[in-house]
Write a structure and sequence with these properties.
Shape: elongated
Strand content: 5-15%
Oligomer: single chain
Number of helices: 12
Radius of gyration: 47 Å
Protein name: Dynein axonemal assembly factor 4
CATH superfamily of the largest domain: Tetratricopeptide repeat domain
InterPro entries: CS_dom, CS_DYX1C1, Dynein_assembly_factor_4, HSP20-like_chaperone, TPR-like_helical_dom_sf, TPR_rpt
Distance between the termini: 16 Å
Order of helices and strands: EEEEEEEEHHHHHHHHHHHH
Number of domains: 3
CATH class of the largest domain: Mainly Alpha
GO molecular function: nuclear estrogen receptor binding
Keywords: Cell projection, Cytoplasm, Neurogenesis, Nucleus, Repeat, TPR repeat
Subcellular location: Cell projection, Neuron projection; Dynein axonemal particle; Nucleus
Number of strands: 8
CATH topology of the largest domain: Serine Threonine Protein Phosphatase 5, Tetratricopeptide repeat
Length: 411
């Protein structure tokens, strides 16, 4: 049960209000400050400082500093004025409770907005990083294409030079053959003139049809025509495989595929799951086993994925609330328990056990946040569902005594 701290000091101007609260030896790291327009609360166990302000303040411009054994509040008044007192006198208990509830609700809403803002900023940063990475990859691909183009151009020029060299060499060989043929013809003519005086019989024998046929050049048969089928391996890049850098191209394609999956509207992580991992019931059982083994964070991850696949199963939120309660994520425990109760409709005997668990976990989280009235309401609701539960009845009686003691101390 907290001890109410009353030894504080305060000063004021028309626009500002200064409050000094001593920590009384408590650790500054364990202090929790809650500040709204009409309500100010500091919890530094075992002490509690609570003030219902005389007039509203601007909590967005106000600030609190913790250090050197004290907490200093610099509160900005909404309307310039000199207050007669720090707190509002003759305030009823119902009005005080209503102000407390409004303050807690506003604090929770503010925390949710900050969480959403952080998540949005994270998504924007990730998207920007992906865009920058894709631009860098595109620039690298362009550089590779330019290098390939230069290499192709260089190879083409060398090929043309080689062809030209071969053509000139072939032309020189033809010229040489032609000259040799002319020389042979000249030598043959001289030999013919020297042999004109040979005998007639020998001439006739040499000029016989048989010898003429033997002198005729025998040519090889003409080649038959045909068609050769050529098939090319399909490739993403237009260059030939022998001119490409396979490792660099495969790495670029892999990174492009990863970037497209990440920037896609559909969650890319769900595309790589197995059929078993896409079953919310399997994920729920997996989360229960991990929770029983003490790996709470892994259980939360399994239930997060199951909820992403199907957000209409109340048991998923109920089990995740137990994980958050174990991790002392009290606000998330309240949120998941409330969502589970919202889905556990209509209230029937079949879901009574689940509703009791949701109310007890939410009530426990409220009590851990020292919101005993809200916690007592959940415990009493659980008792209405199961009036024979002695353990719940005993815990509710303890919470009721804490609330009564706190009210007596305030009086």
């Amino acid at each position: 049960m907290p001890i109410i701290a009353n030894d504080y000091t305060w000063e004021q101007t028309e626009n500002e209000l200064y409050i000094r609260v001593p920590l009384k030896g408590a650790k500054a790291s364990g202090s929790h400050v809650l500040c709204t327009e009409r309500y100010l609360k500091v919890n530094f166990p075992p002490f509690l400082f609570e003030v219902f302000l005389f007039a509203p303040i601007d909590d967005n411009k106000s600030s609190a500093k913790i250090g050197n054994g004290v907490i200093l509040f610099n509160l900005h008044k909404k309307e310039p004025a000199v207050w007669d007192a720090l707190t509002l006198a003759n305030m009823g208990k119902e009005e005080m409770q209503k102000i407390r509830e409004n303050a807690v609700a506003k604090e929770q809403e503010k925390a949710q907005q900050e969480t959403k803002a952080r998540a949005e900023r994270k998504r924007e940063n990730e998207k920007y990083s992906l865009e920058v990475t894709m631009k860098i990859e595109d620039a690298e691909r362009k550089r590779i294409e330019d290098v390939k183009h230069e290499e192709r151009k260089k190879a083409t020029e060398e090929l043309e030079k080689w062809k030209e060299k071969e053509r000139i060499q072939e032309l020189n060989e033809k010229i040489q053959k032609k000259q040799m043929r002319r020389e042979n013809e000249s030598n043959k003519a001289v030999h013919t003139r020297s042999s004109e005086h040979c005998s007639t019989a020998t001439s006739v024998q040499n000029d016989s049809p048989v010898n003429v046929k033997q002198k005729e050049k025998i040519l090889p048969p003409t080649r038959s025509t045909g068609c050769i089928q050529i098939q090319f391996t399909p490739r993403v890049f237009p260059t030939a495989l022998r001119e490409s850098r396979v490792a660099e191209e495969e790495e670029w394609l892999h990174k492009q595929a990863e970037a497209r999956r990440a920037i896609n509207v559909v969650d890319p992580g769900l595309q790589d799951l197995t059929d078993e991992e896409k079953n919310p019931e399997w994920l729920k059982d997996k989360g229960n086993k991990l929770f029983a083994a003490g790996d709470i964070l892994a259980a939360v991850n399994a239930l997060n994925l199951a909820i992403q696949l199907n957000n209409k199963i109340p048991e998923l939120y109920l089990n995740r609330s137990a994980c958050h309660l174990k991790l002392r994520n009290l606000h998330k425990t309240i949120e998941d328990s409330s969502k589970a109760l919202e889905l556990l409709t209509p209230p029937v005997q079949g879901n009574a056990s689940a509703r009791i668990k949701a109310h007890l976990r939410r009530g426990t989280a409220f009590c851990e946040l020292e919101l005993y009235v809200e916690g007592l309401q959940d415990y009493e609701t659980a008792l209405k569902i199961d009036p024979t539960n002695q353990k719940v009845k005993s815990d509710a009686e303890k919470i009721r005594r804490i609330i009564q003691s706190s009210l007596l101390d305030n009086e």
